[in-house]
Design goal:
alpha/beta; three-stranded antiparallel sheet
Length: about 775
């Protein structure tokens, strides 16, 4: 179309809109948005701003912003679409009613019940008059009115609307469609609101069964789609868990079975990219060191390349007018097509030669009995599930499993986490020179309400695996306080006397419950023969700084590479060389194991055979997703080259890390905010650099939750590695706990007792003892 009709033709606009809807179907919303804005501009320029075709990309933009829970922005787009359609078609047209329905659902999400009722009632009458009584649009409108009545506590009316929506959805989409499962979940909520617990649980189980069946059918050929559907069904699974929690007090002999059922359902709700990366790594190692293992790795590498090329192509297609590079677009298309064909061939080979790969990388949850078999006598697992209405927790140890519910909702947890993080912000310290007073009230309240109920079940446990959820994914749990301070905390040395959770027991973070199975059942011992390699002290020429954390804008060039001139202006980190030398000495490695200064390049990372090293360390600046324009993935800063290229632009991004082959027991990321999500709205924690390194082949990670102070980091990481390497009985999480205690009690640096210095780091993955 562009070649024959030009870039601003209506056919091009239609194709771009359809292209965007494909990304919407895959929940890749940030890639769809610029395409829709371009389609909107073409329509407005060619047809005029009041033409009904302009409303098509507007409505799609409204949908995206609704999915991202940016409701005010969504109302703006839908409002513009409504104005255009009412003027063009009249008030009683189905295309007007579809926007009315969407505006009503947004008002419902914002608890504006009067507005929601007005929109939804009007939409229902239009659909009934114009389209009969058997359309999907009518079904979703009835579902919205049922939700409205439930919010008004009119559960009898809600049940009637839900029953109508259920019948319409079954007749139009079938009883194995996600929409059918969502209506069943709403029906369950209505039953629970009427105190009909048994009926509510039955409907919730039926809804979950639909989604589990779909995931099982999709997981081999369309694993990402299966994960996306499970993620989108989180509220559905929350209803199921709530129904079980209501039933539990009177469960009697069914308590154990109900606890196990809820435990598995919550795992379905928490399907994550990081846990998928762990499973993929485990599957690759389980295949062994043969042609099949190489085929598994080759398929993963091809997929990583495909996603990188696809991301660059979308960015190129989103540019306007003179910014377009048609030659680049053609080359990227050819490359992506070739990679697609290669993926299809690799999938056929894996399906024929290694059907067990499907099982290892699937989304099947792990039951409590399976977890218990994986734990040592002094280990336990605590899994959390945070919902808008309540928080649920499961404690699993070798002897038993238990479940409890806490009346604390997601928004309250997020507010407390934000308050705690504000008092450990090193940028504020750099500005004022004063350590902030820590948020003891919030840290103690979070512990008391969520974690204290598990104390009795965790008696005698020395190593705890935690699967956090919601805002808790962005907080190192060791910073919580188990009891109020005995006296006012005035001097920095007083922080040593605080009852920090970090000092109670060793704690390891897991991306998912199933990650424990992948790490302990399928991951073989590392075959790496060299102890250590480290990258740090990149050659930078900016102002000196003592914090490995930066905020960079306009860092990327038109070609998608880092602007090496801007990158070079970042502050140097000479102390990271001392840290890496100390780590190398602890591991018995020579200076030759270090890549410092000019040698700390992206090219050297690609060139070094990293699969030969048991421990890989990066001590440098870290960029969190969203810190810079144009790129939405995190990265590590290395020495910039003279000129940027595809092979080396000075930034080692998450997508590039996935293309590295590792066989590491431990990757140490001594940089800032390396536990951050991937930058997408509502993204899970541990989905950026952590996901990438697991995918590449590490069993555990040391990551940070905020920018780190260099001197304190050097003290902490060297002591941690020394503890882990000098005593075979000390696991990684226990080594971190001991190094935190040492750092807090350094007489020469009393300020290190403040959690700003010791708290950001956490161990992710296998935090126990590594077999040698």
């Amino acid at each position: 179309y562009e070649r024959v009709l030009g870039p601003d033709s209506l056919q091009v606009a239609g194709a771009i809109n359809n292209f965007a809807t494909t990304y919407i179907a895959h929940r890749r919303y940030d890639e769809a948005r610029p395409l829709l804005e371009r389609a909107r501009e073409v329509y407005e320029t060619t047809l005029g701003p009041a033409h009904p075709d302009v409303s098509i990309p507007l409505a799609n933009l409204g949908f995206i912003r609704t999915e991202q829970r940016a409701f005010d922005a969504a109302r703006f787009y839908y409002g513009k679409a409504l104005e255009i359609r009412e003027a063009a078609f009249g008030a009683a047209h189905p295309q007007v009613a579809s926007v009315l329905r969407d505006l009503g659902l947004i008002a419902l999400e914002q608890d504006d019940l009067a507005t929601a009722e007005a929109y939804l009632t009007r939409a229902l009458s239009v659909f009934e008059a114009a389209a009969g009584r058997d359309t999907p649009l009518l079904a979703t409108t009835a579902l919205g009115l049922g939700r409205l009545r439930a919010a008004q506590a009119d559960f009898d009316a809600a049940e009637r609307f839900f029953a109508r929506a259920l019948a319409l959805t079954r007749d139009t989409l079938g009883d194995d469609h996600p929409a059918y499962a969502r209506v069943l979940a709403r029906m369950a909520e209505a039953y629970l609101g009427q105190d009909r617990t048994a009926a509510g649980l039955k409907a919730a189980r039926a809804a979950t069964a639909v989604m589990r069946g779909r995931a099982a059918r999709l997981r081999s050929s369309r694993a990402r789609e299966a994960q996306n559907e499970l993620t989108a069904a989180r509220d559905l699974f929350a209803t199921h868990v709530a129904a079980i929690a209501d039933r539990l007090p009177a469960a009697g002999g069914d308590r154990e079975a109900l606890t196990a059922e809820a435990f598995e359902v919550a795992q379905l709700a928490r399907a994550s990219k990081a846990s998928t990366a762990v499973a993929a790594m485990a599957a690759r190692f389980a295949a062994g060191d043969d042609a099949l293992a190489r085929a598994v790795r080759a398929r993963q590498d091809t997929l990583a390349f495909w996603r990188n090329v696809d991301r660059r192509l979308v960015g190129a297609l989103s540019r306007e007018g003179v910014e377009r590079d048609l030659d680049l677009e053609r080359r990227l298309r050819r490359r992506r097509d070739a990679l697609s064909a290669k993926l299809a061939a690799q999938d056929r080979t894996l399906a024929d030669d290694f059907p067990a790969y499907v099982e290892l990388t699937g989304v099947a949850p792990l039951d409590p009995a399976g977890v218990r078999a994986l734990l040592a006598p002094d280990e336990a697992l605590l899994s959390l599930f945070v919902t808008p209405a309540a928080t649920y927790a499961w404690v699993v140890r070798r002897e038993a499993a238990s479940m409890y519910r806490v009346a604390i909702e997601a928004t309250a947890i997020a507010e407390m986490v934000a308050a705690i993080r504000e008092t450990v912000d090193p940028f504020e310290v750099a500005r004022t020179g004063v350590l902030p007073a820590f948020a003891f009230d919030e840290a103690q309240a979070l512990y008391r309400r969520i974690f204290a109920p598990a104390d009795a079940a965790l008696a005698g446990i020395r190593h705890l695996f935690v699967v956090p959820d919601g805002a808790l994914q962005s907080l190192p749990l060791g910073v919580l306080v188990t009891r109020p301070p005995d006296r006012p905390v005035d001097a920095v040395s007083d922080y040593r006397d605080v009852a920090w959770l970090a000092l109670r027991r060793a704690t390891t973070v897991l991306p998912s419950v199933a990650s424990l199975r992948a790490l302990r059942r399928f991951v073989r011992r590392s075959r790496a023969t060299r102890p250590f390699i480290g990258y740090g002290d990149p050659s930078l020429s900016g102002d000196s700084g003592a914090t490995r954390g930066i905020e960079v804008r306009a860092l990327f060039t038109r070609g998608g590479y880092a602007n090496v001139d801007v990158l070079r202006q970042l502050s140097p980190l000479p102390d990271t060389a001392d840290e890496l030398r100390a780590l190398a000495r602890t591991m018995g490695a020579s200076e030759g194991a270090l890549r410092l200064g000019p040698a700390a390049t992206e090219s050297s990372v690609r060139r070094d055979a990293l699969a030969d090293y048991r421990i890989v360390a990066f001590a440098t600046h870290g960029l969190a997703a969203g810190d810079f324009e144009d790129v939405s993935e995190p990265a590590l800063v290395l020495t910039p080259p003279a000129e940027a290229s595809l092979a080396d632009d000075g930034l080692l991004t998450a997508s590039e890390i996935t293309q590295i082959a590792l066989d590491a027991d431990w990757v140490i990321l001594s940089a800032c905010n390396t536990a951050a999500p991937d930058g997408t709205p509502g993204a899970e924690g541990l989905s950026g650099l952590a996901k990438a390194f697991f995918f590449a082949g590490t069993r555990s990670l040391l990551v940070s939750h905020w920018p780190v102070a260099s001197d304190a980091t050097r003290e902490l990481t060297t002591a941690m590695l020394s503890a882990a390497m000098t005593d075979d009985s000390v696991g990684r999480a226990e080594a971190l706990r001991r190094s935190i205690l040492r750092l807090m009690t350094l007489d020469s640096r009393p300020e290190y007792a403040h959690p700003l210095f010791w708290a950001p780091f956490v161990v992710v993955g296998e935090g126990g003892v590594t077999p040698r």
